[in-house]
Automatic annotation (TrEMBL):
Residues 3-227 form the NAD-dependent epimerase/dehydratase domain. InterPro entries: Epimerase_deHydtase (IPR001509), Lipid_A_modif_metabolic_enz (IPR050177). This is NAD(P)-dependent oxidoreductase. Pfam families: Epimerase. It comes from the Bacteria. It comes from Paenarthrobacter aromaticivorans.
Length: 286
């Protein structure tokens, strides 16, 4: 099966590469930025924000599946709205149109938990009302809707994975990494100990969910949460990480913020059973 991966040189893309290279049944093509230097014969350069460039790659590759990871994330969306929309929204429309002409059977899209917002008290399911309070969330939701509409037209099936807080070796901006890297002179800053709660999911588990989404039986479109399913407060996080090393932090003004996934659907559809943060940290101590 031929797989085209966009954003293949991004943080999650690099983790996904490691797993793809172990799969003899999958033949990957890695789409990377023109500014990047190809590392293997599987790397293809294209500007994801250039519709003509992106369409050309898809039509030449004729992939069975497209895994769409490329995106401008978080606050960076507000820094350059034109570029962010081209990458986060327009590129999805281009991929859908090109996929139809290339005979692609499925698109798997890395979406975000930001679509739900953070004003919750319990894990949210895919049926939960969206809260598009950031530019990033709105753009990702727009891309989901484009994908949903294209698959509803019967051109191909599609999966949108709403991914929660990823951590791992490459994710230096995650709070897990920042706390582990904290020093007495450069403490990490926390927005409360008990009121700030997140769902931390290990990058290899996310990559595994993406690969399982390639072959899950499906007609039309499916949206699934990808997280650990375990709410972790800052207090709990500091406690867990303190088993590895001394953690240094300072407190900002506390705020109520809760974001955690109900992963029941992914467990049923993908047999998704991620490691908890505690289990990952125990493994790292061995």
């Amino acid at each position: 099966m031929k797989i085209l991966v966009t954003g293949a040189n991004g943080r999650l893309g690099m983790v996904l590469r490691q797993q793809l290279e172990r799969r003899e049944d999958l033949s990957p093509i890695y789409l990377i930025s023109p500014r990047a230097i190809p590392q293997t014969e599987k790397d293809v350069t294209a500007d994801i924000s250039d519709p003509g460039d992106l369409k050309k790659v898809v039509l030449l590759a004729e992939p069975d599946v497209i895994i769409h990871l490329a995106g401008v994330s978080g606050a960076a969306c507000d820094a350059n709205l034109k570029l962010s929309r081209a990458v986060n929204v327009t590129a999805m429309q281009v991929l859908c149109d090109a996929a139809m002409n290339a005979g692609t059977s499925r698109i798997v899209f890395s979406s975000t938990a930001a679509i739900y917002g953070d004003r919750h008290r319990e894990p949210v399911s895919e049926a939960h009302q969206v809260d598009l309070s950031s530019t990033y969330a709105r753009m990702k939701h727009d891309a989901e809707e484009i994908l949903r509409g294209a698959s509803a037209a019967g051109h191909f099936s599609s999966v949108a994975l709403r991914i929660f807080n990823i951590y791992g070796d490459r994710f230096s901006d995650s709070l897990v990494h920042r706390l582990l890297s904290s020093t007495l002179s450069k403490p990490s800053r926390l927005q409360g100990l008990d009121t700030f709660v997140r769902d931390y999911v290990h990058a290899p588990d996310v990559a595994e969910a993406i690969l399982r989404s390639i072959k899950v039986p499906l007609h039309g479109h499916l949206t699934m949460n990808i997280g650990s399913g375990e709410p972790t407060s800052n207090r709990q996080l500091v406690h867990l990480l303190s088993n590895l090393r001394t953690i240094h932090y300072e407190m900002d003004e506390p705020r109520a913020s809760f974001s955690c996934a109900d992963i029941g659907l992914a467990a049923t559809k993908l047999n998704f059973s991620p490691e908890t943060l505690g289990d990952v940290l125990v493994g790292s101590r061995r």
